[in-house]
Amino acid sequence: MLRHFLAPLAALSLAGCATLAPSAPPPADTVTGSVSAADPRAEDAGREMLRRGGGATDAAIAVMLALTVVEPQSSGIGGGGFLVRGTREGSVETYDGRETAPAAATPDWFLKEDGTLPPFGESVRSGLSVGVPGNLALAMQAHAEHGRLPWAELFGPAIRLAREGFRVNPRLRESLTSSRDRAAHSSLGRELFYDESGEPRPVGYLVTNEPLARSLEAIAADPAGFYTGPDAAEWSAAIAGETPRPQGMTAADFAAYRAKLREPVCASYRAHRVCSMGPPTSGGVAVLQILGMLERFDLAELGLRDPATWHLFVEAQRLAYADRELYLADSDFVSVPLPGLLDPAYIAQRSALIAEGSSLAVAEPGRPAGASLARADGDEPEEHGTTHFAIVDADETMVSYTSTIEGPFGSGLMAGGFYLNNELTDFSRSPTVDGRPVANRVEGGKRPRSSMSPVVIYDPQGRPLLAIGAAGGATIPVQTARSIVGIIDFDLSAEEALGLPFIMANGDSVFVEQGTWLVDAIPALKALGHADISVRQVGLKAGAVLRTEDGWVSARDPRIEALVALP
Q1: Phi, psi values for residue 182, rounded to 5°
Q2: How many distinct helices (H) and strands (E) make up the chain?
Q3: Is 208 noted as a catalytic residue in this protein?
Q4: Any idea what DSSP says for residue 425?
């Protein structure tokens, strides 16, 4: 049986590691706290931990583990993530569990022998795309510092779901159909999720995943073994065998992995304190810049449905993304001018470029203090294999956690019953542009840039207010900022804010979500200078917990409610 790989973290003292998870859930007591996740069964796992007396960190880990089972297309222990934790007293910590490239990786990692790039799909469905997973290392570190329940107890719901079975919901069925090339790439994936004729399992089909149940039991008993046990050598050899290069992943890469406690990035928006994750993700900086540039405009006075509101939002996003594409990467490898990018004076300068009555012809990056000679960015295809969950516990500790395996079903490679990420394709596959090195190029041990944007927010009185985040590749910071504006500027409920129509710029073009009231605003937006506007269907997935007058409430994007419902 394959055991587990990833960082050793041997120094961590994990209370109760040797105690196996219980086989049955506890009685349904009153839950004090709130849990939001993309799948109700994962929400139940988090609530179970809160009922048992666990805190938000315990609940978040249980949710992540349960999603490994019921949402295999999006996240899990084969991937990585970022966790932001904010206490009632205002202390904020951020945990970086982003995947890393193997030590053998070089800037030309994805190039063919002739120096050209292969088709993107070839890079994905190979060992080239797999980074050392970080979710379990993140969970181990966060639990060692903030867990209340024994480590093994957090695995109970996920083990039950894997062994006793979970039913295919419409969303998983849709992913199995649209991403068959990855989901069915391995023999186990075909066995679990497709019938003898190759058709995806129907909605309502009961999937049991015994290999994953055994893997989870082993990790519950010996978490460090995931990184340094016999499986680390076996799995790394399997990944290297799928890598079209003489050198690939090794057991030493797994053993060398460390989750990292990073400094949060925080700023003020309309007297609210907004905190998120810094590099190697670009998402937190982008969200703070968007909000900062919008603050001088009275959006509430303009109105929620006024096209001018969304014109200003798009302009702020364009400027933030111009900076993102130039300056943001793994700060352990690249000099990121973080203080300069978040300097209120710099953001005010950037905001001054926004005109209420017209659009910028071109949104150029700025030159924040501390910026070295700007480096061009390369290609970074958008992927949609990510999930977000948010938890608040009885002590009003908030946890905002975005977890990913990158694309749907990651690389398509499986180990121990779960999919391995294709996170390395979040690097720019081209190492140079116009002869200049790309900041987000591949390097050994480096973490690829991300768009993930887990956020916690405190109200003007300093009280915990909101934990929020999203999934969906490059759309993540825009989804997150849009929902924050909906809650703070327009006093929307969490569900209403997450369900707002979506609008986003992609360079000089803009797209608007099909079938929403923003489509009616297109003529006005064109009159403001947004000449290239398209209408499209978008796949969005966000979640939040929000404090209201009646207590904490949870919500997820209403677009996915029908997709996660079971017959």
Answers
A1: -100, -45
A2: 21, 21
A3: no
A4: G
The whole-model pTM stands at 0.93
In degrees, rounded to 5, the angle at the alpha carbon of residue 280 between the alpha carbons of residues 310 and 495 is 40
- Amino acid type, 74: S
Location of structure tokens 């003898």: 196
DSSP label of 176? H
DSSP summary character for residue 424: G
Distance CA 447, CA 119 (A): 22
Burial environment of residue 4 by CB neighbours within 10 A (0 to 12, 13 to 18, 19 or more): buried
User: At residue 396, what is the residue type?
Assistant: E
Distance CA 240, CA 462 (A): 50
Domain 265-358+451-564 part of CATH 1.10.246.130: yes
pLDDT tens-digit map of 48-77? 999 999 999 999 999 999 999 999 999 999
* Residue-wise burial string across 500-522, b where 16 or more C-beta atoms lie within 10 A, e elsewhere: bbbbbbeeeebbbbeebebeebb
How far, in Å, are 66, 81, 403, 492 from residue 389 at the CA level? Answer: 12, 11, 8, 20
Bridge partners, residue 437, by sequence: 432
Closest CA to 440 of 326, 314, 320, 321: 326
Helix (H, G, I), strand (E, B) or coil at 243: coil
Specify whether the CB–CB gap between 109 and 128 falls below 8 A.
Answer: yes
CA distance linking residue 464 with residue 551, whole number of Å: 12
Q: Which of 57, 386, 402, 404 is catalytic?
A: 386
Q: What is the pLDDT of residues 77-123, one digit of tens each?
A: 999 999 999 999 999 999 999 999 999 999 999 999 888 989 988 88
DSSP 335-404: ---HHHHH-HHHHHHHHTT-BTTB--SS------TT--S-----------EEEEEEEE-TT--EEEEEEE
Amino acid at 447: R
Output the CA torsion 430→436→438→444 (10° steps). Answer: 80
Q: Which residues pair with 132 in a beta bridge?
A: 100
The predicted pLDDT at position 7 comes to 31
Domain limits, the chain: 34-257+406-437, 265-358+451-564
Question: SS3 for 327?
Answer: helix
d(CA 272, CA 458): 6
pLDDT at site 4: 30
Tokens at 222, concatenated: 């010996």
Residues whose CB falls within 8 Å of the CB of residue 22, separated by 6 or more in sequence, listed in order = 153, 156
Residue of 436, 411, 438 lying closest to 427 (CA atoms): 438
Q: What's the pLDDT at 433?
A: 81
pLDDT digits (tens, 9 = 90+) for 202-261: 999 999 999 999 999 999 999 999 999 888 888 888 899 999 988 899 999 999 999 999
**How buried is residue 32: exposed, middle or buried, by Cβ count under 10 Å (0-12/13-18/19+)?**
middle
Q: Cα separation of 154 and 87, whole Å? A: 21
